[in-house]
User: Which sequence fits this backbone?
């Protein structure tokens, strides 16, 4: 049984092997399921306008690139960390700033200019079987919910060139370390810092992992394409 936040049909993106996806989606499309649920509740009240992604954005700011002086990276949130019950976010300004800095650095590395933080650091993930989400009955809420497995601490993000041109979805793995400023840093030694990796299910010891937001096949970078074996006819 595979454990991942995203379904298998979305191609996995490796920045060393692949060009960025050709097709993108908008943030409204990425959050369509969440928005539809919110609007279904609001729709019971007369005269209420439907919510868009802009309405649920907690905050955003622009951060300068380290790699390219001309590049400005927009980091925004669609989750409000000030409402988190996680005590690690009790002094919210510091972990929020560190989270934004880690995400900015990742976008900068990939040559992208927009990061949307979908979930702050958490240690659970959805379970999938045969490409479908496994659900269970939650007696405490009286609802069917996605089954969850334990995971290494990670942010869930969207990345792209703007909110109207998102290309990737993924995880950035982090560790909570009392010796670090803000107690938080990106994983830099996955073999020793990650503990919830199932190699039998095809998972890898990585610091970050991304998937395309569409199901289109990813193009190999030119040097990869040149060395790929020719297909037999």
Assistant:
């Amino acid at each position: 049984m595979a454990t991942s936040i995203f379904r298998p049909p979305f191609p996995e993106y490796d920045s060393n092997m692949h060009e960025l996806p050709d097709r993108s989606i908008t943030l409204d499309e990425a959050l369509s399921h969440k928005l539809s649920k919110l609007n279904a509740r609001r729709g019971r009240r007369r005269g209420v306008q439907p919510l868009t992604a802009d309405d649920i954005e907690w905050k955003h700011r622009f951060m300068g690139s380290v790699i390219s002086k001309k590049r400005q990276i927009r980091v925004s949130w669609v989750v409000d960390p000030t409402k988190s019950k996680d005590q690690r976010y009790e002094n919210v300004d510091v972990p929020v700033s560190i989270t934004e800095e880690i995400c900015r650095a990742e976008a900068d590395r990939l040559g992208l200019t927009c990061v949307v933080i979908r979930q702050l650091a958490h240690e659970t993930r959805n379970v999938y079987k045969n490409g479908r989400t496994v659900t269970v009955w939650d007696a405490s809420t009286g609802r069917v919910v996605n089954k969850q497995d334990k995971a290494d601490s990670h942010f869930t993000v969207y990345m792209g060139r703007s909110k109207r041109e998102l290309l990737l979805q993924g995880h950035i793995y982090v560790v909570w370390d009392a010796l670090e400023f803000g107690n938080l840093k990106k994983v830099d030694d996955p073999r020793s810092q990650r503990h919830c990796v199932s190699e039998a299910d095809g998972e890898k010891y990585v610091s970050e992992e991304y998937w395309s937001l569409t199901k289109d096949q990813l193009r190999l970078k030119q040097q990869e394409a040149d060395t790929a074996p020719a297909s037999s006819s």
